[in-house]
Amino acid sequence: MSFISRAVRLLACTAPVALLAATPAPAFAQSDASVAAAPAPQGVKRWPWLYENSDVPQDKEWIFGELKNGMRYAVRQNGVPPQQASIRIRIDAGSLNEKDSEQGYAHLLEHLLFRQSKYLGDGEAIPTWQRLGASFGSDTNAETTPTHTVYKLDLPNASPSSLNESMKLLSGMVTAPTLSEQNIKSDVPIVLAEMRERGGASMRVQDATRRVFYAGQPLAERAPIGKAETLNAATAQSVRAFYERWYRPENTVVIVAGDVDPARVEALVAKWFSGWKASGEPLPAPSFGEPVAPASANPDNPVGETHVLVEPDLPRSVTYAVMRPWKQVNDTIVYNQGLMADTIAQAILNRRLESKARAGGNYLMAQVGQDDISRSVDATFVSVTPLGPDWQGALDDVRAVIADALQNAPTEDEIAREVAEIEVAFQTPVEQRRLLPGSRLADDLVNALDIRETVAAPEDVLRIYRDTVPQFSPERILRHTRQLFTGTVTRAMLITPKDGEATEASLRQALLDPAVADDSVRLAAAEPIEFDELPAIGAPGAIVTHAPTGLLGIERLEFANGVNVMMWPVMEEPGRVAVKVRFGGGYRSFAPGDAPYIALGEMALVSAGVGPLGQEELDRIATGRKMAFEFEIDDAAFEFSADTRPADLADQLYLFAAKFAMPRWDENPVKRAKAAAELQYESYATSPQGVLNRDLKYLQRDRDPRFRTPTPQEIEQATPEGFKQVWQRALTHGPIEVQIYGDFDRDAAVAALQKTFGALPERQPLPSDAAPASAGFPEASDTPVVLTHNGDANQAAAVISWPTGGGSMGITESRQLEILTQLFTNRLMEAMREKLGASYAPQVYSTWPLDLDSGGTITALAQLEPAAVPMFFTTANEIAGDLIANPPNADELARVTEPLRQQITRAATSSAFFMYQLEGATTDPTRLDKVRSILTDYTVTTPAQMQELASRYLGEDKSWRLAVLPKGVGGAMASASAR
């Protein structure tokens, strides 16, 4: 069952609440009796085909059926978000189904189906979905992998008519696409643009990885993106031949999960897909092969292919894998119990590897993970990031920890710790079952189909797990650990920035050499750490203000020490509590020379510890609890955040408050963060996107040094003492705002707040030398700043940006600007992608900092070929100029405002939406009022208003430009420099 057969995944939850008049109460799943009572449509066979040859309990909320033509479907009623239906159409064919001459066809077909089909004219798909309220790229999307192609639609406002229309359009796309020569001519350049944007060092690593680890199998040569030569040779006849072989009813599954009547959906599936008939007999899937060891390999340690890849701008890494043939299995309870034991074994190993890294191993990080890859191999991967040139020392350290795990059984304490962690991961979906969105349920079923497994209800998963726990003896976990490292062949790859550091022979020998077991990082028996044993934050604080905000059920509290709280118990969100702590001054509170410590703080502030709790103790005290400690730096505030449970809320609040009251300053996390920052820096130069990630914010802020990515030399000069000085000031100065939204007992939460945040000392004001509440923007120019990258010669990026504004008083205008940027995006996509094929995913976005009175921007960017950079600037200018000169027409505007309406309406069904919208409201109460107008602000406008906004902000004389070109390329544009 896919819920537990792979790495444990925690839920990304949404929950229904009501603010907008248009948002109805959610409709949750029907009872089994009501589903069973509805008769199946004529010509449909209802049967649980997913559970054939499985004794895993069937999730009865799914209704399974099959049409006479062999096409299967699965339907489920789910009310999260309300009125949405998530539709997935999975074709059981991907790049591994291609012939040599067809490489890239599976992915090309994905594009062609959106281009034109039975009910959609050329280029009509995107506008049509937008009119139905679906945003292209998020609500409508598709993916092609080696083993399947999936078409995805999250249909908002899933009324009977829009659901019928969507099923009609999707059926036309899948069963009757227009595979014309002209359409192929239009879409191949877009696919090649996507290939180009994915190119460079990352693509070379992916290609080398496939060739090494899957040597001798089709997967070694079959990337879904394909090859330029086969794509350029594609014809209507050759593409249709691939389509007709694999796009067949028996290879297709339609999945629908949403706020819909299952019987109605079944009828629509039958209505629109029953007439689909395929010609000829179905073909068996091609053989995906098996991993085979070289004849010369030692049977006791079968090391096979190894490869050393020299990439000057990438950090060193070593990956080796123990490969086994992938075998189709019956997805039984016993099979899943074995997977659970595998999970425990891997978790113990990974915890030991992390402890070794923290204790001063030769590697920055290392991880073990088992995975079934594309129904081609069952492999255990070991990945290692060395701290420096001594890759062999790093590999030896990791292999030594693994060798001990292969020789000696784990302790009962180690097993109990991981059992408790997994218990929480399986219990949380049970508690939050009502919050699981239909899109997640649909995607889970898609994944189950792909790996040939089932799905199970959260209660059944938890019950099976608890029944299995007594089987997790040290001896069984040892046996499963050994199985994970037993296979047909072991293969390895080393990435290094320097030629001559290693050879394939030396890498192979490193794996052949016996590993000396290292038992230093086994978990010693230790008494558990309890929160009630930790020192108190201080005397419980007094509440001086307590009043409703007037918005929904949100309350505001203020403590005598100045800490402000906004809290909202939402009983419709069972089992989930979101906590956010906003404090200090963010970027504006740093000095110009603090850039290295800003970067290090993002990685090391939390792991530096609190009070008596270092990294190991923080891990231990969180065992069996759902706790987190996320950290972000914003323009004018810092944020701690976590998703927790009602039972863990008080402890989560203590953990956050203790970071202020008793911060710990362990040096090792800082040293490790320094190593990570230094390793990462050079990789930015491998691609245009990497350069943008490194420098765009810095340049857009008029080279404010606080936003600059520090160099390895600057990171090297940073010290633990300097780190403490910078971050101690950040933790002690500026206001604190706490937000708690979700399923919690109000009185218990208030008591916990009094003992934690209410007990903190009174906060000091922000330092007088803090930067003013504003942000700069570079001087306008029609000559671009030019940066260079070290990637492929056919890769470039172009950016054009206009300044806007900032501050909460302009929030309505900032929302209207979102409409304008979506208009711009649609036009830029049409021009640069659909017509010219010059860029795969050009985009336009708007920023508007609410906490600063300036600093907002409208930014358009695209990745493209260097020769197309001037064309991008010309096109962007023409679009901006036309928006200034001519108002958009009503249909164009509706294709933006309707998806925005649906996005806001869906988002407003979650308390997390309001938590985000109300950040800073305790010091800026106007934000409470502005929430009430959010739907209007994002959706109600006129063509004239859009034209006026464009005239105010998009003038050519206000823009700033940036080009990122390959090193050594540029001509006239290369005369400017950003450095």
Automatic annotation (TrEMBL):
Keywords: Hydrolase, Metalloprotease, Protease, Signal, Zinc. It comes from the Bacteria. InterPro entries: Metalloenz_LuxS/M16 (IPR011249), Pept_M16_N (IPR011765), Peptidase_M16 (IPR050626), Peptidase_M16_C (IPR007863). The keyword Metal-binding does not apply. Pfam families: Peptidase_M16, Peptidase_M16_C. Its EC number is 3.4.24.-. GO terms for biological process: proteolysis. This is Zinc protease. It comes from Novosphingobium marinum.
